[in-house]
């Protein structure tokens, strides 16, 4: 009742409250100039192509078992190659980005293969969840006031350094299950935050004249892939634990 009363009071104090909020949101969106909106369309179109290329990489691994250390190395080399290629060679840079996405898809191919063996619906569920989260947080970054979330970049960078130290500690002293879960869920939280910060940073860079849609698409692609992989691992571990419990019940 109290919640209803406060809502009613807010509507009385502002009869057109809903319309006012809608106007504020549209006004924030109109802060993005037509040039920047066109740039964002190029970024997201390139991102979609990169995701398709990555899916092709997964498919190639399922056919010929191509994923492994060499594809991971190919992904890293492709990123450095892309960043060192001049901006005026955009077609070449797009091709390099597609190659990097292909290598990334092949690299996560073994994980996808395992997920298919346990429960094929895991991949679709993780992809839909990642796409929904990506769409919602990207929209939040676009509709918010300019530079509103950029201050989170420092916190996320600190969190990423903590995550790297956790990886180092796990590889040096041996990782426990608790450390693995902290790494998994904390990393998921970090990269979801990067979806918001990177989207708003791309918008600000575009306002300042940086219209490098290939590099911006690469940034969003790495965020998308990081969240997707962690969701697959979480769903896969939950499904495997569920299978173990069912087997124990059958034995007992």
TrEMBL record:
Protein localization: Membrane
Membrane topology, as annotated: Multi-pass membrane protein
Transmembrane segments: 69-88, 94-115, 122-143, 149-166, 217-240
GO cellular component: membrane
Main subcellular localisation: membrane
InterPro entries from the UniProt entry: Bax_inhibitor_1-related
Keywords, alphabetical: Membrane, Transmembrane, Transmembrane helix
Coiled-coil ranges (or none): none
PANTHER family from the UniProt entry: BAX INHIBITOR 1, BAX INHIBITOR-RELATED
Family: Belongs to the BI1 family.
Record's protein name: Bax inhibitor 1-related
Species annotation: Dillenia turbinata
């Amino acid at each position: 009742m109290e919640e209803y009363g406060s809502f009613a009071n807010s509507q009385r104090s502002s009869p057109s409250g809903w319309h006012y909020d809608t106007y504020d949101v549209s006004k924030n969106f109109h802060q993005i100039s037509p040039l920047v909106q066109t740039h964002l369309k190029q970024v997201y179109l390139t991102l979609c192509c990169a995701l398709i290329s990555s899916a092709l990489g997964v498919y190639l691994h399922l056919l010929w078992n191509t994923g492994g250390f060499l594809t991971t190395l190919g992904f890293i080399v492709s990123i450095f190659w892309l960043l060192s290629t001049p901006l005026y060679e955009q077609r070449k840079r797009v091709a390099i980005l597609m190659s990097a996405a292909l290598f990334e898809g092949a690299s996560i191919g073994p994980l996808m293969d395992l997920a298919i063996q346990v429960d094929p619906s895991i991949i679709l569920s993780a992809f839909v969840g990642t796409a929904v989260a990506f769409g919602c947080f990207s929209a939040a970054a676009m509709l918010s006031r300019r530079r509103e979330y950029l201050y989170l970049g420092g916190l996320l960078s600190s969190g990423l350094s903590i995550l790297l130290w956790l990886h180092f500690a796990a590889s040096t002293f041996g990782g426990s299950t608790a450390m693995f879960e902290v790494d998994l869920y904390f990393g998921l939280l970090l990269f979801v935050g990067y979806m918001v910060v990177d989207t708003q940073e791309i918008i600000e860079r575009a306002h300042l004249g940086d219209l490098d849609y290939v590099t911006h698409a690469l940034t969003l692609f790495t965020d998308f892939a990081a969240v997707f992989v962690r969701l697959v691992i979480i769903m896969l571990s939950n499904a495997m634990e569920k299978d173990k419990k069912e087997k124990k019940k059958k034995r007992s």
